[in-house]
Design a protein that fits this description.
Oligomer: single chain
Number of domains: 1
CATH superfamily: Trafficking protein particle complex subunit 3
CATH class: Alpha Beta
Bound molecules: 2-acetamido-2-deoxy-beta-D-glucopyranose
Family: Belongs to the TRAPP small subunits family. BET3 subfamily.
Keywords: Signal
Organism: Diversispora epigaea
Protein name: Trafficking protein particle complex subunit 6B
Shape: globular
Radius of gyration: 17 Å
Strand order of the largest sheet: 1-2-4-3
GO cellular component, one term: trans-Golgi network
Strand content: 5-15%
Distance between the termini: 32 Å
Order of helices and strands: HHHHHHEEHHEE
CATH architecture: 2-Layer Sandwich
CATH topology: Muramoyl-pentapeptide Carboxypeptidase, domain 2
Largest sheet: 4 strands, antiparallel
Length: about 210
């Protein structure tokens, strides 16, 4: 599935002129070309992905996992696991790419702030709207206009739509966990939504 994402993003780059840099790092992911462009004047040529296609892909990915995995309620967990792992790998790759030239992070809060501001901006072109912490290893990230939910709805709307959107949060949960892990912060990430396109991610840092 991960390689499908890679393939899709490679196909999409050539197909589109708009305008999201997400998966740039993956699409142009072979290190040789990266380092080549890095040495040639420190610029990385942007690679663009058609955003509609990306959204369709992300939606289809969830459906595909259900079609190929779940035939009972228990299998939901298997679907969760697959999507979360997929997100984890993408999160790791993104962080590798986008922290390459940064100074080291000072502490966990610094890392979480990076996720909320910089990583979120790279992926969603906006920052997290609200960050709360209990200062004991729990961080709550609220996005009032989660980009991947903006064009989702169901006929009934409201709570029904929110309930059915939950599986679409598993990939981004993994993404956050992968990003954190690659910055040395081991965590558990869960998410919920009460009404689209709002959603909340809760990060629980593992005690070391
Ligand atoms: C993006 O993809 C959609 C769906 O295939 C297409 O309708 C749209 O024209 C594409 N946009 C651009 C800018 O290529």
């Amino acid at each position: 599935m991960f390689s499908l994402l890679l393939k899709m993003s490679t196909v999409l780059q050539s197909a589109s002129s708009a305008i999201t840099p997400f998966f740039t790092s993956l699409a142009s992911g072979d290190e040789s070309s990266n380092s080549a462009s890095l040495t040639a004047g420190n610029t990385i040529k942007p690679v663009y992905v058609n955003e509609s296609c990306l959204e369709f892909l992300l939606m289809e990915m969830v459906d595909l996992m259900f079609r190929t995995t779940a035939d009972s309620e228990n299998d939901k967990e298997a679907v969760f696991y697959k999507l979360e792992m997929l997100g984890y790998q993408v999160g790791q790759s993104l962080v590798e790419r986008f922290t390459r030239e940064r100074p080291r992070f000072v502490d966990t809060l610094d890392v979480v702030k990076f996720i909320c501001k910089e990583l979120w901006s790279i992926i969603f072109k906006k920052q997290i709207d609200n960050l709360k912490t209990n200062h004991r290893g729990v961080y709550v990230l609220q996005d009032n206009n989660f980009r991947w939910f903006v064009r989702m709805s169901t006929e009934a709307g409201g709570a029904d739509a929110a309930k059915r959107a939950v599986p679409y949060l598993w990939f981004p949960c993994g993404l956050i966990r992968g990003a954190l892990a690659n910055l040395g912060v081991i965590s558990v990430v869960v998410a919920e939504t009460n009404s689209l396109p709002q959603c909340t991610f809760q990060i629980k840092i593992a005690k070391s």
